[in-house]
Known about the structure:
Keywords: Membrane, Transmembrane, Transmembrane helix. By secondary structure, this protein is mainly α. The chain has helices at residues 2-17, 50-53, 100-133, 137-157, 168-194, 197-204, 207-217, 225-244, 250-273, 281-303, 305-320, and strands at 58-69, 75-85. The chain has a two-stranded antiparallel sheet. A hairpin with a 5-residue loop joins strand 1 (58-69) and strand 2 (75-85). Helix 5 (168-194) packs across helix 6 and helix 7 (207-217) crosses helix 9 (250-273). Residues 1-53 have low confidence and may be disordered.
Amino acid sequence: MNNTMMSSLNQSKLAFTSLTNPIPRKHSSFSALKFSPLPIIQNSQKGLSFDKISQKPLHISSIESFSFSRKTQQEKPVTVCNAYEADRSSPLDINIELSDEHAAQKIKIGLYFATWWALNVVFNIYNKKVLNAFPYPWLTSTLSLACGSLMMLISWATRIADAPKTDFEFWKTLFPVAVAHTIGHVAATVSMSKVAVSFTHIIKSGEPAFSVLVSKFLLGETFPLPVYLSLLPIIGGCALSAATELNFNMTGFMGAMISNLAFVFRNIFSKKGMSGKSVSGMNYYACLSMLSLLILTPFAIAVEGPQMWAAGWQNALAQIGPNFVW
Length: 326
């Protein structure tokens, strides 16, 4: 690297010495230049020296010549040298300021989280009400996916949302993600039909622990010690909740645990297989729901079946009345 820098700087020196300098030497900035293997780049606005910001070695990325005009209209060649950090691929930005767009993006993401959380609460409450009157989680899971898929199809047909451009390769890559999503969705609904909503979501809050453990033992990823320590209160809280739950049910507990594991694999498959795909987040989830619906429907028919659903429908109407439809 030093040889490259010195040769580049020697070229610069030759360019400077070839200038005819009509200005007295005491006013010339060229005569004051002293080159070293690690030059100091001054920030004209802040007065900060580059060597105080970074001590990393520099590569000379390019040397370009351009000209400027003086009062005598004589063009003088000037050599421009661009420096990059050795482990970076873009020029250094000494002045970094957060724009208003960045702050607005943070607020937007925060609103997304708040909206998702609020709607998730409503979904869980109504889902539990339905399961209390109509205890068929396989059909309930199927209808949830069907409603979401129908809403997106209507949005695409009415141009409320732009339909995604997909091909066979996209659906092939999406298939394992949809399988994991289907298992996790059904398992969570089965758990919710057997135990309280609060207990199901306390167990499901252990998903970060599953994510770290699966990534560690199956994918070989390593995490810093604070990450592992942060899992202790999560695991301890789930264990304490399971041990002290008054209406503990093994089916409900195992359903929540299976849901955690399935969603972890869903995220892993999604990250590995769908990277680089030009499908927006909303359309991606819509395609995922539609494919999951196709996977789940035959299993729901096999496990519960139309006869059980018809009998349960009559019982629900007898207990609650027409409001059950709402």
